[in-house]
Amino acid sequence: MQWWCSAQTAAWAWTWRAYPGVWLIVLAAALAYGWLLRRHAGMSDDQPAARRWVGWAGILCLWVALDWPVGALGAGYLASVHMLQYLLIALLAPALILLGIPASVWTTRATGLLRGRAARVLFHPLVTLGVFNLVLYYTHIPTVVDGLMPTQLGSFAIDMLWFAAGILFWWPVLVPVPVRPGFSYPMKMGYLFLNTVLGTMPYAFLTFGELPFYGIYELSPPMGAFTARQDQQVAGLLMKVGGGVISWTAITIIFFSWYSAEENGQRTA
Questions:
Q1: Which pLDDT score, from 0 to 100, does residue 168 have?
Q2: Under 8 Å CB-to-CB from 202, ≥6 apart: which residues?
Q3: Residue 69, preceding peptide bond in cis (omega within 30° of 0)
Q4: How far apart are CA 159 and CA 115, in angstroms?
């Protein structure tokens, strides 16, 4: 009963403090995505119309991660829910949104800047992989979490860092511009696999730590039967298992896309 009262308290606090901001962010993302779909509707492109719903699924993931109850519990009550937010905001939502953008968007003159030298550097796989993992490590340092999460602005900054880093991370894998002839199907699979390796240290740090690292979650009202250390261990396992499921699902899809492309190439040869 105590955990339910705590959850209700968190709900009301989150409702009055963060709902408007959450709704504005999600609404802005939905309007931008809807505008892209409408602007490029009917253009010749090889993307199935049903795939555009994938982008709306990404918007939905963003909403679930930021809104109540996930947003409320992750903001300062449970490290495990905070990790669920990370998976949704940094890994799942960016991938789905980029997948849902029509291919014609990337072939119009409006994407001229994406073909320039600056874009080649910014979206280079080594740069995107490095930035993504730098953000991952930085936003899970105890002093950073305890310093930023207690305030609405700090919590918002972490969420937006995750989302921006996620867009960068998935860009070389899902977006065809800037053109990267050397970044083939096997290279994309290796890129995703390397990311799972680089994420091992934060996972081990959280899962095998003998004491809770985050004061904000250790000192929060109890939520269920978990202790703060157990909650932290669940967060570490979520990072490893959840991140692994997303990455290996992507690797599997890329593998079969590669196989299909090779098979089609042999048929037309």
A1: 98
A2: 136, 137, 140, 236, 239
A3: yes
A4: 28
